[in-house]
Design a protein that fits this description.
By secondary structure, this protein is α/β, with parallel strands linked by helices. The protein has helices at about 25-40, 55-70, 80-85, 90-95, 115-120, 160-165; strands at about 1-10, 50, 75-80, 105-110, 135-140, 155-160. Strands 3-2-4-1-5-6 form a 6-stranded mixed beta sheet, with helices on both faces. Helix 1 (about 25-40) runs parallel beside helix 2 (about 55-70). The protein is globular. The model has no long low-confidence stretch (mean pLDDT about 95).
C-alpha cells in the first residue's frame, strides 16, 4: 500500500508582503499545525518521505509536522512546482519517480491545488479544504508509478476546527 498525506499549509498573516511567497504563519497557524501533526502521530501515520512548497508558510508548516513526526527537517524536499501550480498528471509523474521503499509521503502545499489534487486522486470530492486540512489517502499498490487518479481511498480527513469542537 502507498499512502499520500496531503496538507494545506496552516493559517497565515494577512500583512502586505513584497511577495506572496514570504507570508508567514500566525501563532494560530503554528498551533493548528502542531495539533494536526500530533493527531497523525497518535494514529501512527509517519512519513518515509516529505515534500513541500518552498514558500515560507508551507515550509513552516512542514517543519512543525516534521518535528512532531520525528522526520529530519533538513531532509524535507522543497519542490517549486508545488508553489507555482501543477496538474494532477504532473504531480503523478513526479511521485511515479519516488523510491518504492517509501510507503507514506507527506505533501505540504497550497489551495486550490492541494484540494483539487486530493479530489483528483481519491474517491471523494473536497469542496472544503481549510488551512491545515489534511487528507490521508491510501492506494492499493506497492509502486508509486501505479498511483492513478480517483483510485485512492480516503483513510482520514482532518482539519483544526473539527478537533476543537
Amino acid at each position: 500500500m502507498k499512502r499520500l498525506v496531503l496538507v494545506r499549509h496552516a493559517k497565515t498573516e494577512h500583512q502586505n508582503y513584497d511577495r506572496d511567497f514570504d507570508r508567514k504563519l500566525t501563532s494560530r497557524g503554528k498551533n493548528d499545525a502542531a495539533i494536526i501533526a500530533e493527531q497523525l502521530k497518535n494514529k501512527n501515520i509517519i512519513p518515509d518521505y516529505f515534500i513541500c512548497s518552498p514558500a515560507t508558510r508551507a515550509k513552516q508548516t512542514a517543519e512543525i509536522f516534521a518535528r512532531t513526526l520525528g522526520y529530519p527537517e533538513e531532509d524535507i524536499d522543497n519542490q517549486l512546482f508545488l508553489y507555482e501550480g501543477y496538474t494532477t498528471s504532473e504531480f503523478l509523474n513526479f511521485i511515479s519517480r519516488l523510491d518504492d521503499n517509501y510507503n507514506t509521503v507527506i505533501v505540504v502545499a497550497h489551495n486550490p491545488d492541494i484540494a483539487m489534487l486530493a479530489s483528483a486522486v481519491s474517491d471523494e470530492d473536497f469542496y472544503h479544504f481549510p488551512t491545515t486540512a489534511t487528507a490521508v489517502i491510501d492506494f492499493d499498490t506497492n509502486r508509486w508509478d501505479r498511483v492513478d487518479p480517483r483510485e485512492g481511498k480516503v483513510h482520514l480527513f482532518l482539519y483544526p476546527r473539527i478537533l476543537k469542537e
